[in-house]
Write a structure and sequence with these properties.
The protein has 258 residues and is an alpha/beta fold. The protein has 2 domains: 139 residues, Cobalt-precorrin-4 Transmethylase, domain 1; 113 residues, Methyltransferase, Cobalt-precorrin-4 Transmethylase, Domain 2 (2-Layer Sandwich). It has 8 helices and 10 strands. The strands form 2 sheets. It has a 5-stranded parallel beta sheet with strand order 3-2-4-1-5, with helices on both faces. It starts with a strand and ends with a helix. The protein binds S-adenosylmethionine.
């Protein structure tokens, strides 16, 4: 039997790592790092720093593999994601077959938490279902970019007793959800918040959260939307890539609750 640990490493700050994750890191023989190209070198640099910083008295190996890219043109989004996951599955299977010996422990260091917009667990389930590998896996939770965002802005996710929705820029483009007062938006490459300026919303925006490049902006959406768009564009150009998340809250809802 081979064991895989899916370890949530937090979303940017090496100190986001939990005690449980540190213990898990110290069980690992082989770390599998998926290389997303030079833009995101910084993310794998952080993964290596975490290994150097928290693993004591243990010899481990790092195996890097090229992460397949999602096809962006000429195919529907859902199909492109399915294709991507099946290519990733092939890569994972090869790594597990060729780089991990029987009885050894391998690990994927997942950005933030493995339950949030991440396919690692889905892919491992598909591999186990395929039946070609004797494999078990464990999941260690991590601090998501959502928690990093709310902590840095010192704000709660929800208004008192109200609902929160976590969604993507693509979904938000369909409109602000009727059944939630707070919406966290991830994976938004298109500044979708700019289309909601006629709503009475507060925005809490964060880029590169937990890293030395972190940027925070908050305020009434209609007052700060242009500033976010400008700062976001400049940061993206300066760094070659951007990771940002924002929380939109209907203004004044806590007053209604009292
Ligand atoms: C594929 S999802 C992975 C989410 C991750 N599993 C988590 O728990 O946060 C990637 C998206 O997460 C958000 N994100 C991740 N890390 C971030 C960070 N340090 N700062 C701002 N947003 C971040 C961005 O919206 C990015 O597009």
């Amino acid at each position: 039997m081979k064991t895989i640990l899916v370890i949530g490493i937090g979303a940017g700050n090496p100190e986001y790592i939990t005690v449980q994750a540190v213990k898990a890191l110290n069980r690992v023989d082989v770390f599998f790092l998926m290389d997303k190209g030079s833009d995101k070198d910084a993310l794998n640099r952080l993964r290596k720093d975490i290994c150097e910083r928290y693993i004591t008295d243990r010899h481990y190996r790092i195996v890097e593999a090229l992460n397949p890219e999602r096809q962006r043109e000429g195919v529907a989004y859902r199909q492109a994601v399915d294709n991507l996951n099946s290519e990733k599955q092939q890569t994972f299977e090869r790594l597990i077959a060729e780089e991990l010996a029987e009885g050894e422990c391998g690990a994927f260091l997942v950005w933030g938490d493995p339950s949030l917009y991440d396919s690692t667990m889905r892919i491992l389930e598909a591999i186990i279902e395929g039946g070609r590998h004797e494999l078990q896996y464990e999941v260690i939770p991590g601090i998501t970019s959502v928690q990093a965002l709310t902590a840095r802005h010192r704000t709660s996710l929800n208004h008192i007793g109200r609902s929160v929705q976590i969604t993507t820029g693509r979904r938000l483009a369909e409109g602000f959800p009727e059944n939630a007062d707070s919406v966290v938006v991830m994976l938004d490459a298109k500044n979708t918040y700019t289309s909601l300026q006629d709503h009475d919303l507060d925005v809490y925006w964060g880029a590169y959260l937990g890293t030395p490049d972190e940027i925070l902006i908050a305020g009434k959406l209609r007052d700060v939307a242009q500033e976010i768009e400008r700062v976001r564009k400049a940061a993206r150009e300066a760094n070659g890539w951007i990771m940002d998340t924002y929380l939109l809250k209907r203004s004044g809802q806590d007053d209604l609750d009292r």
